[in-house]
Amino acid sequence: MSSLQLIKEVDGKPVTYLVRCADGTLYCGWTNHVDKRVKAHNEGKGAKYTRSRRPVKLVYFEVFETKEEAMRREAAIKRLAKKEKERLATDGRKQLLDSETRFKLQTGTS
After folding, report:
1. Do 29 and 13 contact (CB within 8 A), yes or no?
2. What is the CA radius of gyration of the chain?
3. CA–CA separation, 18 vs 12, rounded Å?
4. Contacts (Cβ under 8 Å, ≥6 apart) of 72
5. Selection from 17, 36, 13, 14 nearest residue 85 by Cα
6. What is the pLDDT of residue 7?
């Protein structure tokens, strides 16, 4: 399954996410439509923080049952030390890339 398909599967569910900005910084937020939100960030319609740091790339996300859970996780991530946020981003990006690789291997696409 590609990372894009993973994102489509969670569309409409509360998600806490991290994006890597063009300047190397991380931005954390929550949304019910992660693909649309990342697109909005890249169009300059997202958060004020990301407008001058485009393009952004999704590096991590977690899916929740309620928006309150997603919002609590966003707050918790924002309280993490930079090193911990970087670990989430690195591990999350690896998982997204691994899922893309598995999808390509399963379907025989390149």
Report:
1. no
2. 14
3. 17
4. none
5. 17
6. 67
